[in-house]
C-alpha cells in the first residue's frame, strides 16, 4: 500500500480535476515527475473514480 505525500496527493487531485481518465503517455509523464510507478498512478486514478462514483 502506497502512502502518498501531501504534495503527491495535491498533484494527483489536480490532474484528476482536469481529466478523470489518463492515457498511457500522461500516466508515464506523471509517474516520472512524481517518482512513482505507472501502476501506482493507474491504481490511484481507478480508486479515485470509484470514490467519486460512490459519492454520487
Automatic annotation (TrEMBL):
DNA-binding region (UniProt annotation): 3-56
Localisation: Nucleus
GO MF entry, a single one: DNA binding
Segments forming domain Homeobox: 1-55
Predominant cellular place of this UniProt entry's protein: nucleus
Gene3D superfamilies: Homeodomain-like
InterPro entries, alphabetized: HD (IPR001356), HD_metazoa (IPR020479), Homeobox_CS (IPR017970), Homeobox_TF (IPR050848), Homeodomain-like_sf (IPR009057)
PROSITE patterns (alphabetical): HOMEOBOX_1 (PS00027), HOMEOBOX_2 (PS50071)
Keywords (A to Z) from UniProt: DNA-binding, Homeobox, Nucleus
One protein family per Pfam: Homeodomain
Gene Ontology cellular-component annotations: nucleus
Signal peptide: none
Family: Belongs to the BAR homeobox family.
Designated name of the protein: PV1 protein
Source species of the chain: Mesembrinibis cayennensis
Phylogenetic placement of the source organism: Eukaryota, Metazoa, Chordata, Craniata, Vertebrata
